[in-house]
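Note to self: keep these together.
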Amino acid sequence: HFYLLNKGAEKITLEIVDILGKNIKTVSLNKKRKGEQFLLDVSELENGIYFYKIVMDNKQTISGKITIEK
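Structure:
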């Protein structure tokens, strides 16, 4: 599972891509309250390395790497 805490953004988009850059999943998390926590189920992803990008209010971007091992 993947958790994200909303610190006040009105529009949040989460993108997950594989190691080749192919978009695997895009989720819009709009109109959530400040302090609300989001849970994204990534259990359907195969073992491997993925990258995520979180865009908040079309400006602030957070990115990182996820390793899935089952």
